[in-house]
Amino acid sequence: MKKIILTFLLTLSFYSFSENWQDKWSEACFLMEKSQFDEAKNSLNQAISLMELQDNHPYLYVDRARLNLLLGSEDVLGDLDLALSSDQLVSQEKIRAITTKLIVLGRLGSERAILDTIKNFKALVNLPTVEIKDSKLILRNIPNSEYYKKLMTCYLIHSGICYDKDEFTWMKSGMLVAEKINHCGCQKCIAEYAKTRVCDSCLAVVNPGKENVLLGQLIVEGVRYCGSEVKQLEDQTAFLTALLQIQNMGKSIEFFDDTFDNIFSDIDKSKSIFWD
Questions:
Q1: In what order do the strands lie in the sheet with 175-179?
Q2: Measured between alpha carbons, how far is 227 from 230 in angstroms, rounded to an integer?
Q3: CATH top-level class for 2-124?
Q4: Cα 93 vs. chain centroid, distance in angstroms?
Q5: What angle do CA 83, 87, 92 make, to 5 degrees?
Q6: pLDDT tens digit string along 169-222?
Q7: Where do the CATH 1.25.40.10 domains begin and end in the chain?
Q8: How many other C-beta atoms are found inside a 10 Å radius of the C-beta of residue 160?
Q9: Which of 142, 143, 240, 259 has most Cβ atoms within 10 angstroms of its Cβ?
Q10: Average pLDDT over residues 20-37
Q11: Chain-centroid distance, C-alpha 78
């Protein structure tokens, strides 16, 4: 009888570990590349089941969360919280997990949760360095994303720091050099600054002095927009970084319901979420 039990346990062990989680995870990635998302989900679920028996790699939970988001499910906070509770996530994996959590919260519209979670995101990312030299504003180490560039361009124009996008130089080295509005405080400058003008980036009307939105509310609305419209991880992270950059710069702007739609109207939003 003992021999039968031992044989059974050895057989069970053999079948349990004849497949490893890496094989199933690779299979899920391959199926994603072929846009076979349901099949990829099955393989990923199997990979996670095997991983939980064999190892501890919590980033797989983030993979599943992002795949479920692609499939239209927002019931993914359990996977993300499970991943974030682990001390096995390295810094970039944590950023990916928290970015994904903010995307979910943006879709759910959870204002308090968004403001709490954005603090965790801020603790992990390095914001671009801001330098002001004479009449120039310089941002260093900026993300390589059109979302970051367009949001910061419009913010700097709408907040009255810069006048138009022609005064912006975006460098391949990851730096922005922009001409600041030269406002010396004289009556002529005050009158010129007070004029209503059109932002040449998003074509919205700029009303100087109408700073009627709190920066916290701008972040909440930005995360909600990001959650519904921005698909790629790199762009999502860059968008959230721009929101924090705006918060750090401290000047609020006039905000309307279609502000973000106007800013990003010419960006292709058809790309799907992938666990990149």
A1: 129-133, 136-140, 175-179, 168-171
A2: 6
A3: mainly alpha
A4: 13
A5: 70
A6: 999 999 999 998 777 667 777 677 677 778 888 888 777 655 555 667 888 999
A7: 2-124
A8: 18
A9: 240
A10: 92
A11: 19
